[in-house]
Amino acid sequence: MDTLAYGAHLIVDGYGAKEAPLVDEAHALGVARELLEALGLGSTPTLTLTHRARDGLSVGVALPESHLTLHTFQPAQRLSLGIFSRQTLALGEVLELLRVRFGLGRLESHLDSRSVVLPHDEERARTFLLGERTYADLRLDDTLLAY
User: Fold this and answer.
1) pLDDT given for residue 87 in this prediction
2) Are the C-beta atoms of 131 and 116 separated by less than 8 Å?
3) Is residue 77 part of a domain?
4) Which Pfam families does the record cross-reference, listed alphabetically (predicted)?
């Protein structure tokens, strides 16, 4: 069963990204580490996952009281980032780091006070990451706006 937790859940969608960084796994993992360190969440991860998809990649990092997920979609030049923490999150720092590291043109963000927590079990975490990727892909798909 997924666990619902209370804290800051930041979701950032980025548009107009440079294509090369969107499929570079080392780049995505580096950005995840930079974000966690910049936000003061840089403790040792309990789990780090990557998933290469036909249209980009996904990264998930679970920490004792936080998690980060990053999904990239190369053909659409978009990405979606989710960070959950029980600490205050510095939105400006996150947005600027994403803008610079992925060459983003436009960013949209949403802050919530609760989140489903990334499981620390690898099999369940992978299922969570792939489900979240599917949801992000649908959410970022402009063709669905016509309906």
Assistant:
1) 87
2) no
3) yes
4) AdoMet_dc
CA distance 5 to 113: 9
| Euclidean distance between CA atoms 60 and 129, whole angstroms | 7
Quote the number of domains for the chain: 1
Report the alpha-carbon distance of residue 51 to residue 27 in Å, rounded. Answer: 14
Q: Where are the alpha helices (DSSP H) in the chain?
A: 25-38, 91-102, 122-139
What's the pTM value of the predicted model, to 2 decimals?
Answer: 0.93
Q: Tell me the HSE value of 142 on the side-chain side, using a 13 A CA sphere.
A: 7
Residues of the chain under the 50 pLDDT cut: 1
Q: Residue 108 domain-assigned?
A: yes
* Tokens representing residue 68 in the block: 């980060």
Taken in order 132, 90, 119, 104, the sign of the CA dihedral is: positive
CATH code at 30? 3.60.90.10
Task: Flag whether 143 is in a domain.
Answer: no
Q: Is 136 helix (H, G, I), strand (E, B) or coil?
A: helix
Domain with 16 in it: 10-113
Q: Is residue 84 part of a domain?
A: yes
